[in-house]
Amino acid sequence: MKRHFLGACIASALLLSTGCSQSIETQKTSSQAAQQSDAISPLEQEARAKLATLKSMMDEARAKNIDVTREETLVWFSEQFIKFANWDEANPEAIEAAFGYERYYAPNKAELAATLPDFERTKVNEILEKGIAVLEQVLRGEIKRRPVNKVDWQGTKAGDNMFVSHGKPIFPYDYFSKTVGQPLTNTDIYNDHLGALYHGGENLYPVDHDRAINSFLLKEDGTFDQALLKELTDIPDTNIGFLYYWIMGIPEWVEKQEPEVRKGRSLFTGFDIDNPLARDVWGKIIRKTGELTKGKKVTELGFVLANEPHWFAEKDFWTAPFHEMTSISSYTLNKFRSWLEHKYAGDLAELNANWKTNFASFSEVTIEIPIDSALQGQPIWYDWSRYNMDRSTDWFTYVQNELHSVNPDADTHIKIMPRMFMDNVRSGGIDTEALAELTTMVGHDAKSLGSKNIRPGKSSKWLEKYAYYWGYVAMFHDFMESVAPDKINVNSESHFLSSGQWRDLDTRTSYVRSVYWLATLLGMDANTGWFWARDPDGSPEDRLEGELDFFDPGLAGAYAGSNNMQPHVTNEVTQVMFDLNSFSEEIIELREQPRPLRMFYSETTAINTDDYMTKSYALYESLFFEGFPMGFVTKNIIEKQDNAQWDTVVVYNNPYVSDAEFAALQSYLNTGGTIIVDAQSLSLNEYGQKRSDKLVAAKGKLVQLPDEANITDIKQRALAEVADAMPEVMIKEDNGEAFKTTTWRSVKQADGSYLVNILNVGHNTAQLDLSLANGKPVTITNMMTSNPMDSHFELESEGVLLLSVSAQ
Predict the structure, then answer these.
(1) How far is CA 620 from CA 421, 450, 614, 630, 679, in A?
(2) How many C-alpha atoms does 68 have within 13 Å on its Cβ side?
(3) Which of 310, 368, 490, 597 could covalently link to 428 via disulfide, CB atoms 3.0 to 4.6 Å apart?
């Protein structure tokens, strides 16, 4: 029993199923029971009455063979949060401390702690009221819902590009870092409501223990720590899950043998990835754990090869206080020298000319790390940044090869932060495309902002136009799906609900539904949300009790304002996943469409400029609301994928490209492709030297835009080029603004009807007119309710529709 549990039991009444001893309850006199009942909050009494009403209605529905899986989850979360509210009320000091650790809430921590219990009870009443109203509609026959397609937590398998359960696609969901210390068999934590994935990564920042696979497994004498191995092998072979290679720590014995081993460390990688002893240690650990877990269900969702890897080598960057890349080892420097010699084909004079140096040999090359950002756009910046990416890709190639040497069928992915692609900065050593190509699954921790950024000085400009930061989700997913269209996509730490940058104690359920729907529609196959930190008695889990002093200061404040305090949010996550899984085949069909228009992406320009992604996003945003899925091409995509999968490539804001990238674009034209290119693009090589070659149309079509062409001009020309691939289902939107906020996808069915998905990510209700390109009148059915709709209809802010449309 945890240290706060007894107080919680007293405050919340023993008769309320808080897990306290039933024998004590039975000793109560009727007078004591009456007094206890009087102590119950009026809001809780109201919720209890609504629960009784809902349960009675559920019995009626079951008698009519109506699926009530959704209501079962609603009941479970309501009962849990009634219990949680009572714990919070009985332990105000703990809740006040939790709010105090988050600087955004700290000034009002006492007031927030005092009002939280009734806030939670109010939200429980709201979701119950809504649930009763919906079930009433079902019972009256006013709406008809599909039964929930539950995740089979024991039998789900990884297919070619999706998870499969009982012959249908399935989208597993859970929470990252669940209540450390609770057994994996505890059904209060692992169930259909919270999710039931088993995984070894639950202690976020372990030193020498936990189910996460870490450096301390291997002893100096070459043997393995059997107690730590047992924590891994004792994971029940019952539920599917995934395992982490947690590469943050390094044993003292390694550091004694290799004094340089921490040079070039990063925030979540505690050692030099170029160090031969560190590699040897990890090679042995990976082979051992790969053998022990071969064929186990806990690896069905793969091995996570790293948590949020990055090696920012830029001077005065935000990672500097964590000692990230504040120096580099002799191993890293010597590998860089070899890389340069290969890159320059042994031409030292060319390197000296580029760098404005006079090195006598490649073996004498030196560089100051961290590097000054003032050097961006110069050859030395490009060479180091490109090498930093290549060396991290080399590390992950090594890790994966070691695993596959003993377990060739093991799936792998890496928790890549979206910012490594979406932000302008490229000094972090992560080639997002290369790593998505390398691993057998696509991995990341994609996030969104559901309301304004809570950090001073951080932009929330997107809020001027949209209800949430949909673009951060959409553009990242569209890129990853373009790079690896046939791979499963796993978000192993989704920050859709809160993060260090944002949180909202009263998060909109409409936002929750929209963002999870959008991410799944655009490629996300499984997700574990940030984060579940309640123990079954209602108290915060062990790590969040007492004085909190974490290496990452963000963790201490993560509990405040999270979904752990929001019953409406936590319930909605499961409800939207139920609905997505009920329509999993339709979602996959909508997802797996051709992407007729592709934007060309160049890592070369991204490295050399400080606004590449800002400008690229502006074009992407302008094209997103035209009814078809956007895509990307790169040199590798052109060379490795079927070019017939797209119609037109737009080359915008790509002044720096390597000769290999230029050649790939020319080869696309040579085979009949269409390219739209602006006047500034392709003019320089990676070192800023002018390119004399120009693209020629050959068998294709080359549209060279004039100097003055802006994004509107590019958009109009691009849409004209893909006119034949435009959707047959058209939507006209009036949202009261001069810009669009409604996005839709449609797929023609075998019977001639159309499957249509619509999302409104704007602030305003949108007036929509749906029609067919052939002009025929339409019959529309809302697939979520089975009800007919008119062709003119409203879609509220953050609304989601899934429709069946037929020509009359």
Answers:
(1) 14, 20, 10, 8, 19
(2) 24
(3) 310
CB atoms within 10 A of CB 296: 18
CATH of domain 729-807: 2.60.40.1180
Backbone angles phi, psi at 756, to 5 degrees: -130, 130
- Inter-residue contact 508 to 496 (CB < 8 Å): no
Per-residue model confidence (pLDDT) at position 201: 53
Write 70-73 long-range contacts (CB < 8 A, 24+). 70/131, 70/145, 70/148, 70/575, 70/578, 71/131, 71/135, 72/192, 72/193, 73/192, 73/193, 73/571, 73/574, 73/575, 73/578
Partner residues linked to 756 by β-bridges: 746, 803
Listed in sequence order, the DSSP H helices in 460-564 are: 470-483, 509-521, 553-556
Report domain extents, the chain.
Answer: 5-139, 206-417+424-431, 597-725, 729-807
What pLDDT shows up at residue 27? 32
Output DSSP code: residue 242: E
Angle between helix 379-406 and 276-292 (nearest 10): 40
CA distance 163 to 300: 9
> 24 vs 41, 79, 222, CA distance in Å?
22, 21, 54
User: Taking every pair of C-alpha atoms in the chain, what is the biggest distance, in angstroms?
Assistant: 95
**Is the bond preceding 540 in cis, omega lying within 30 degrees of 0?**
no
Radius of gyration of the chain (CA): 28
Distance CA 139, CA 116 (A): 34
pTM over 0.90: yes
Own/partner pairs, 123-127, CB within 8 angstroms, 24+ separation? 123/81, 123/566, 123/567, 123/568, 124/43, 124/47, 124/77, 124/78, 124/81, 124/82, 124/85, 124/567, 125/43, 125/46, 125/47, 125/50, 126/568, 127/74, 127/77, 127/78, 127/567, 127/568, 127/571
Q: What is the pLDDT of residue 464?
A: 96
- In terms of Cβ atoms closer than 10 Å to its own Cβ (0-12, 13-18, 19+), residue 642 is exposed
Q: What is the pLDDT of residues 339-376, one digit of tens each?
A: 999 999 999 999 999 999 999 999 999 999 999 999 99
Q: Cα(485)–Cα(477) distance, rounded to whole angstroms?
A: 10
Question: Identical fold at 597-725 and 729-807?
Answer: no
Cis (ω within 30 of 0) for the bond into 531? yes
Cα 475 from Cα 452, distance rounded (Å): 20
* Structural tokens at position 122: 């109010």
Whole-angstrom distance, CA of residue 558 vs CA of residue 531: 9
pLDDT in tens, 666-690: 999 999 999 999 999 999 999 999 9
- pLDDT at residue 200, as a whole number: 65
Contact 170/149 with Cβ under 8 angstroms? yes
SS3 at position 369: coil
Token readout for 600 is 């060309």
Q: Give the architecture-level CATH label for domain 206-417+424-431.
A: Alpha-Beta Barrel (3.20)
Contact 649, 633 (CB under 8 A): yes
Residue 215 has pLDDT above 90, yes or no: yes
Phi-psi region of 403 (alpha: psi -120 to 50; beta: other; left: phi over 0): alpha
In CATH terms, 597-725 corresponds, of 3.30.470.30, 3.50.50.60, 3.40.50.620, 3.40.50.880, to: 3.40.50.880
Closest by CA to 410, choosing from 318, 505, 305, 507, is 305
Beta pairing class for 442-444 and 173-175: unpaired
Taking alpha carbons only, the member of 494, 395, 493, 496 closest to residue 439 is 395
Identify the DSSP state of 147: P
Mean of pLDDT values over 101-129: 97
How far apart (Å, rounded) are the C-alpha atoms in residues 582 and 3? 41
Q: What is the pLDDT of residue 550?
A: 73
Give yes or no for a contact between 547 and 130, defined as CB atoms under 8 angstroms apart.
no
